[in-house]
């Protein structure tokens, strides 16, 4: 940040613009920030309440976490963000906070997905650690979960180390690095939902995946894209492009999840998953009950 502080240590047109923030944009940015936080809470709660991350693809978690890391590093190293940070030296606290809300939004989303990564590992359903042969057919091994967790942490460390080196030692390459992170994040985001779409389709159920989260995030993604595009313009295409792609794919996953839940509700209403004439439970979700019935 030293380089940009030297360039923008005096009053500049850019800093002057930040000193007069639009209260409408500020309010909208705050609402988006709160919306991002609130949208992830149903997913966190669903995993904790079920005490299981069953049904959540480890590769969805891997791609989502690494994509989020790239997105956060991208917005931190973007020249426009560096200019905003440098201007904070001469702006009031409110003006500075208003100017940094875009970075705060991406940062909150990144933290929320890191929490999903932690909960995914903490509540990973398994009977015997590191024994893939003992796992259910559709359930990945605990080894896979640990590999995903380790890869995400290693990726995070490497990205921020390289970003710091370029920022302080090779600032002339900062724009290229920011766009590289943005392109990488967009590529990861483009395929992020594909493993989860496949897993959900294979299970024909959402399991630990939260539909309320997707109901909030899908339309919210497009609102967020508009907010970031208005703040950073075409120069920040590598930042808001990530969320445009994820919004479309998440919408596909949401439609699939709702379809499966409606079908499940109809079966319950028809008594398929209720109690049959012999008093046996017929819920497809209760594997143990089905096994007992078979033994009888």
Automatic annotation (TrEMBL):
Region (Disordered): 272-296
Bilayer-spanning residue ranges: 20-38, 59-80, 100-124, 145-168, 174-194, 215-234, 240-260
Pfam families named among the record's database cross-references: PQ-loop (PF04193)
Matches recorded under InterPro entries: LAAT-1 (IPR051415), PQ-loop_rpt (IPR006603)
Membrane topology recorded in Swiss-Prot or TrEMBL: Multi-pass membrane protein
Skewed-composition ranges (Basic and acidic residues): 281-296
Assigned keywords, A-Z: Membrane, Transmembrane, Transmembrane helix
Subcellular location per the Swiss-Prot or TrEMBL entry: Membrane
Domain of life the protein comes from: Eukaryota
SMART domains: CTNS
Presence of keyword Endoplasmic reticulum: no
Protein name: PQ loop repeat protein
Record organism: Lepraria finkii
């Amino acid at each position: 940040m030293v380089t940009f502080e030297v360039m923008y240590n005096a009053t500049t047109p850019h800093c002057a613009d930040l000193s007069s923030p639009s209260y409408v944009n500020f309010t909208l940015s705050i609402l988006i920030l709160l919306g991002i936080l609130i949208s992830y809470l149903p997913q966190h709660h669903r995993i904790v309440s079920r005490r299981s991350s069953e049904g959540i693809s480890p590769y969805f978690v891997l791609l989502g976490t690494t994509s989020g890391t790239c997105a956060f590093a991208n917005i931190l190293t973007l020249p426009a963000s560096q200019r905003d940070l440098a201007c904070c030296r001469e702006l009031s606290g409110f003006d500075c906070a208003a100017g940094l809300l875009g970075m705060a939004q991406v940062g909150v989303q990144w933290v929320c997905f890191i929490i999903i990564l932690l909960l995914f590992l903490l509540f990973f359903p398994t009977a015997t650690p590191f024994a893939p042969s003992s796992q259910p057919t559709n359930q990945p091994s605990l080894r896979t979960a640990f590999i995903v967790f380790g890869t995400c942490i290693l990726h995070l460390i490497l990205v921020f180390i390289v970003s710091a080196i370029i920022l302080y030692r090779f600032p002339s390459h900062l724009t290229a690095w920011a766009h590289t992170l943005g392109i990488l994040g967009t590529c990861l985001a483009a395929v992020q939902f594909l493993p989860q779409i496949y897993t959900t389709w294979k299970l024909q159920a959402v399991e630990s995946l939260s539909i309320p989260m997707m109901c909030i995030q899908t339309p919210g993604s497009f609102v967020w894209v508009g907010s970031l595009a208005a703040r950073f313009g075409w120069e920040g295409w590598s930042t808001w492009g990530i969320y445009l792609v994820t919004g479309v794919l998440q919408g596909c996953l949401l439609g699939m999840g709702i379809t499966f839940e409606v079908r499940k509700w109809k079966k319950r209403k028809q008594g398929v998953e209720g109690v049959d004439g012999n008093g046996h439970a017929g819920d497809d979700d209760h594997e143990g009950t089905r096994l007992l019935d078979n033994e009888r």
